[in-house]
Design the sequence.
């Protein structure tokens, strides 16, 4: 596991961009809202201890073992990838404006059309609703298709999203996994 960033490193991470983990033809492209400062300081997606993305990914059946954020590029071998609706790092997702989320949704569509994953899994219902203008969207598969890519919304795995338990997250990830393997 990488060393924990210092307060100065966290402060310096504001507005950084973490490169996507993406390749053509993925089964699932997971899409966070935007990276936090901890992730920005380390240059790794979902890096903050307590973020439940990596455990949910494993518990949902996507990875053969629990991966550490430093192993994020191993996802490509599993036909999985990571991007974000908004690329810039912030201390909290609520620092993003609706305009940033809508613009990020347009950029995300371009990425999906280029990489053509089978599924886009957006991690966060509120961000999805804003980015795509779908105010009534619910967690799960969406009617929206981008090119040939299906769209699925998963709960935000941040530890701040406490009403989703680890078991609930695992169940939602597993539902997507079941669709991927059929």
Sequence:
């Amino acid at each position: 596991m990488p060393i924990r960033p210092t307060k100065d490193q966290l402060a310096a991470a504001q507005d950084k961009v973490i490169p996507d983990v993406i390749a053509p033809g993925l089964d699932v492209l997971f899409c966070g809202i935007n990276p936090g400062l901890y992730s920005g300081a380390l240059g790794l997606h979902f890096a903050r201890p307590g973020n439940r993305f990596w455990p949910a990914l494993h518990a949902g059946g996507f990875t053969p073992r629990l991966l550490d954020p430093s192993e994020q590029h191993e996802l490509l071998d599993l036909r999985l990838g990571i991007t974000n609706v908004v690329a810039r790092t912030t201390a909290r997702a609520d620092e993003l404006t609706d305009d940033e989320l809508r613009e990020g949704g347009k950029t995300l569509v371009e990425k999906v059309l280029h990489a053509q994953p089978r599924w886009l899994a957006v991690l966060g219902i509120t961000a999805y609703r804003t980015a795509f203008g779908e105010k009534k969207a619910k967690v799960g598969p969406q009617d929206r298709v981008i090119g040939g890519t299906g769209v699925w919304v998963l709960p935000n795995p941040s530890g701040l999203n406490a009403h989703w338990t680890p078991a609930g997250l695992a169940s939602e990830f597993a539902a997507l996994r079941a669709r991927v393997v059929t």
